[in-house]
Amino acid sequence: MHGLLAWLAVSNDIKEVLRNIFGGGVYKVLIIGTGFGGISAAIGLIKQRITDFVMLERRAFMGGTWMQNRYPGAQVDVQSPLYSLVDEPEPWTQMFAEQPELEAYTNRVIDKYGLREKAILQANVVRLKWQDADCFWRVECADGRHFDAQSVICAQGPLSQPVVPDFAGRDSFAGQSFHTNDWPQDFDHRGKRVAIIGSGASAAQVIPAIAADVAELHVFQRTPHWVLPRPDRIFSPLTRHLMGVRLFYNIIRRSIYWGLEWRIFAFKYWHGLLRFFAERPARKHLREKVSDPFLRGQLTPDYMIGCKRIIVSNNLYPALDRDNVTLHDKNDAIKSITPKGITTIKGTELELDTIIYATGFDATDNNLGFTIEGREGHRLKDFWRAYPRAYMGTCVPGFPNLFLVMGPNTGIGHTSAIFIIESQMQYIMRALRELHQKKGQTLFIEVTEEAEQAYTENIHQQMQKTVWHSGGCNSWYKHKSGRVIAMYPGFSFYFRWLAKRFKKHHHRIVRTHS
Ligand code: NAP
Hints:
Blueprint: H1 2-22, E1 26-32, H2 36-47, E2 53-56, H3 65-68, H4 99-112, E3 119-120, E4 125-131, E5 136-141, E6 146-154, E7 176-179, E8 193-197, H5 201-210, E9 216-220, E10 227-228, H6 237-243, H7 246-261, H8 263-269, H9 271-289, H10 293-298, E11 311-312, H11 316-320, E12 325-328, E13 334-337, E14 341-344, E15 349-351, E16 354-357, E17 371-373, H12 380-383, E18 402-404, H13 417-436, E19 442-447, H14 449-463, H15 467-470, H16 492-500, E20 507-513
Parallel strand pairs: 1-2, 1-6, 2-3, 4-17, 6-18, 7-16, 8-9, 8-16, 9-12, 10-11
Antiparallel strand pairs: 4-5, 5-6, 13-14, 14-15, 19-20
Helix pairs in contact: 2-13, 8-9, 13-16
The structure holds NADP nicotinamide-adenine-dinucleotide phosphate (NAP).
C-alpha cells in the first residue's frame, strides 16, 4: 500500500505541475465534500489507480460531520467498530466514540491516503453544468473559480444544510445565538441563561453536556422523542490490542452488523417487534429516570417508536429532571424571539444570554446546496419537482457521469451509514470502470429512465410498510410531498448486493469520439 501511495503522490505532483503550466484542464473525477463520503470516494479512486481527481471542500478544513459538529457531548450513536471504513480499522477506546476520537480517526485516514494534497479548501460549489459539446462537468464556486471534470461525485453530506427556523423576531435577539452545527469554539456556557430549541439527537447530546454548569436551561420541545439507554462501554486495553488484529476486528464488526441488521424486520415488517423490543424498554427507561409524573407525561411520545430517529442516551432524562432545567412543550411553545430572550405562547417572558438552535438539517427539500444542470440544460430541481429520486440513490437520468453519495433513499435507521456509503462506492467505481475502460475514448454513462423509474417505484412501494411512513409522526426523513425520501426501506446487505451487481443494461454508455 505504501508503495502505491508513494507512486500516486509522484504522479499527482507531475500532473499538477503540468496543469499549472498548461492551465486548468479536465480532471477525470471531481469530488464535492471531504467527509466520510468524499474520503471513501477518494480511497476508491486511488485503489483503482485513478489519481487525476480533486476534492472541493467549502470549509477551511477537511473531514465533514465530525470536524464540523463540535458541540459539547457530540458522540456517534452507532457502534464505532461498524461506524468506520472497512479497510481502516481503529482500536476505539469505547463502543460509541466521542467527537474528538472521530475527528482524530478522520484525520488519520485523510493523512494516510495523502488526501490533503488533493483537496481545495474554501471552494463553495454553487453550480454544476454539463457541457454537452465536450462531455464534461463545469463546477462553479461562489468566489468565481471553476473546475472541469469528466465525472463528479457529490458527497457534500445529507445533513450539512442546517436549518434555523424563521421565528418572529429571530434576528432581534441581543444575546448570542447559533446552530449546534456551528458551535463557536470559544463559547463558555458556564453560568449563562440558555435556551435550546429542538429535542432531536443533537439537542439530546448538548443538554446533558451543559445542564450542570448553566444558570438556567430552557428546552423547547415541539415533539418528544423516544429514548433508549445507550449500551456504551469502555474497551479494555486487551480488547483494544485485539482490535489491532484484523481477524478479531472483523469478528467484532460482523457481530455488530448482524446484531443490528435484524432490526429492519421491526422497522418494516412487524411493528409488534418494535413495541416489544424498543417501546417497552424505552417506557421503562423513562419511568426509571424521570421521577416527576408531569415531566414524564411531557416526555412521552404519541407515535410509534422508530418513526423518528430513536435517541440513545443514559444522561438525557437525568439532565431534564434537574432543578435548573425547564422543559417547554408544545403548549408553551415559542411565540416570538425578543431582544432580551423568548416569549412563549403562554405569555412567559424569558430573559436569556444564549439561544442554541438544535433545529436539525434540510435533508430532503433543498439539501444539495447548489444547482445542477445536466444534458440539454435539464435541471435536477425540475426532475425532482415532485420529490427527489435516484437509481440506487446515486444516479439520475439526464445527468451523465454524476454520482450522488447518500442521495435520495439511502439513509439507514438500523445500521451504519458508512456501510451504505461503501456500498454506493462499489457501484460508482464499477460505473467509472465502464467509463474508463477504453483508452483514448470519451464516454459518458447514464442510468436509463426506465431503470430509475422501476427502482424508485419499488422503493416507495416498499416504504409503505415502514414505520417511517406509517408510524404517525413527522420527521426529517419526509419530503414536503409526504414521501419518505431519506431512508432506504430494506436490508442493508440487499442494497450492497444490488450495488455490487452492476446492471449494465440499466445504463446508457455513450462513446462520443475517439
Ligand atoms: P432533528 O432530529 O431534525 O431535530 C430537530 C429538532 O428541532 C426537533 O426536535 C424539531 O421538532 C425541532 N424543530 C425544528 N423546527 C422547529 C420549529 N420551527 N419550532 C420548534 N421546533 C423545531 O435534528 P438533529 O437533532 O440535529 O438530528 C438530525 C439527525 O442527525 C439525527 O436524526 C441523526 O441522524 C443525526 N445525528 C446523529 C448524532 C449521532 O450520531 N450521535 C448526533 C446528532 C445528530 P419536531 O421533532 O417537532 O420536528
